[in-house]
Amino acid sequence: KKSDDQIRLIYHTTPHRGLQILVPVIEELAKIHGDKIHLDIYSSFAAYGWQERDEPFLDLFARAKDHPNMTYHGFQPNTVVREALQQAHIFAFPSIWQETSCIAAIEAMSAGCEVVCPNLAALPETTAGFAQMYQYSEEMNHHANVFANILHQTILRHREEDNQKKLMFQKNYIDNFYNWDVRAAEWTGLLQALSK
User: Fold this and answer.
1) Which of 25, 146, 153, 179 yields a CA-CA distance of 20 to 30 A from 132?
2) pLDDT per residue over 78-109, tens digit each?
3) What secondary structure does DSSP assign to 28-81, as a single string?
4) pLDDT tens digits, one per residue of 1-12
5) What angle do helix axes 78-87 and 103-110 make, rounded to 10 degrees?
6) CA-to-CA distance for 155 and 90, rounded, in angstroms?
7) What span, in angstroms and rounded, lies between the C-alpha atoms of 132 and 30?
8) How far apart are CA 71 and CA 84, in angstroms?
9) Radius of gyration of the chain, Cα coordinates, nearest whole angstrom
10) Claim: this prediction has a pTM higher than 0.90
11) Are the beta carbons of 24 and 69 closer than 8 angstroms?
């Protein structure tokens, strides 16, 4: 069961995928929503043992640490992140990275989170029509403004009954479509066909 008091937002991927858009957007949305929203950030290149690559993002991490509407958790094991996803309502993902798939989105959707992201690369296919999606823009200010508007609207209607029904359907779909038993059978069939 997720909190009824606050809309919990989460970002749980490496910082170069859009954190430079997300942090300023939350700073602005906090002026509108006050303590009704909170962003948890699980992000660091330490996930890959590349802590030195965090250097360009240290200012963003500091801004998140200093803001009452954000908590910066740094790198945490996947078990911790998946627990946090169970408490989160929205995966806020203003991606600027061309994903070939997106495990972060899959895990968020399985946890019953809405996903707010652009239609960049494989995100439309990965999110299967469930995401609150918008047109990607390379121009950062335009991207941030569009993302902020979509995220604001998603926060406002998150608890509506129809939306909650959609999220239940989303979880059922994702848990079945991305089920490892199903995926393993498909790969086995493909490899067997290729070996003949």
Assistant:
1) 179
2) 999 999 999 999 999 999 999 999 999 999 99
3) HHHHHHGGGEEEEE---GGGGT-GGGGGGGHHHHHHHHH-TTEEE--S--HHHH
4) 898 899 999 999
5) 50
6) 8
7) 20
8) 12
9) 17
10) yes
11) no
Q: Per-residue confidence at 189, pLDDT binned at 50, 70, 90?
A: very high
CA angle at residue 82 from 105 to 34, to 5 degrees? 75
DSSP H helices, the chain, are 19-33, 58-66, 78-87, 103-110, 123-127, 140-157, 161-177, 180-194
- Would strands 70-72 and 37-41 be described as parallel, antiparallel, or unpaired? parallel
Q: Are strands 7-11 and 37-41 parallel, antiparallel or unpaired?
A: parallel
Cα angle 96-114-14, degrees, rounded to a multiple of 5: 35
State the CB neighbour count (10 A cutoff) for residue 138.
8
pLDDT digits (tens, 9 = 90+) for 49-70: 999 999 999 999 999 999 999 9
CA distance 74 to 137: 27
Rounded CA separation 128/111 (Å): 15
Distances from the Cα of 163 to the Cα of 22, 123, 159, 169, 174, angstroms:
23, 20, 7, 10, 16
Region for residue 56 given its phi and psi (left: phi exceeds 0; alpha: psi -120 to 50; beta: otherwise): alpha
